[in-house]
Amino acid sequence: MIGRDREAEILRLYHAEKWRVGTIATQLDLHHSTVRRVLAQAGLDAGRVSVRPSMADLYVPFLEETLKQYPRLRASRLFEMVKARGYPGKPDHFRTIVARYRPRAPAEAYVRVRTLPGEQGQVDWGHFGKIRIGLALRVLWAFVMVLSWCRQIFLRFYLSAAMPSFLRGHVEAFDFFGGVPRVLLYDNLKSAVIERAGDAIRFHFAARQNRPTSADENGPTLGPA
Q: What phi and psi, each to the nearest 5 degrees, are found at residue 173?
């Protein structure tokens, strides 16, 4: 599979630069079938893409019918099935063919959440393995706060995720940003939430200094007291 940025580059080179499929595949170090798949997913008329005859063409109806009935069937199993039916190709190339015809799940719809400057900050801990200090092996944590409006990020490493480090991270983040967001969003991390049952949330003692204003599936939101 290729990333979104690579797919966008394929579409740009094809539409804006008028490159051929083979040229795009060569320059981006991709298989030509991958380039064709990206173009087809973008709604490109198949007639505009020159596709050379393939030894798999005779087996495409069988693949489509089988994948329609068993969309999660592995490519290796499909290869054994078409091989038993006379397919002379190799398994590596066949995987690319299967990817081209495998049904794809419908794209999920997302609602973009917009915030005002200074309205919201998102807080979490990140785990970065362990670090050796002298003879001791310590866990390395990173306190992270991100401003939702501008995505400016504050990150500071600590040797503990305990409450003193959690509170110190807030203070240093506020000092770094030069202010305090109106609302802080926590992703159910234990430093802020002790337990949760549905919409009922029991906050950590230090977090209860701020009153809860709302809670959603992503975690509790704390607002000013």
A: -65, -45
State how far the Cα of 225 lies from the Cα of 158, in Å rounded to an integer: 28
N- to C-terminal Cα distance for the chain? Answer: 48
Tell me the C-alpha to C-alpha distance, in Å, between residue 187 and each of 80, 89, 96, 222: 46, 49, 39, 11
What is the DSSP-derived secondary structure letter of residue 177? H
For the chain, counts of helices (H) and of strands (E): 7, 8
Selected residue with higher pLDDT from 212 and 96: 96
218 vs 188: CA distance, rounded Å:
8
- pTM of structure: 0.46
Mind listing the pLDDT tens digit for each residue in 66-99?
998 998 899 999 999 999 999 888 888 788 888 8
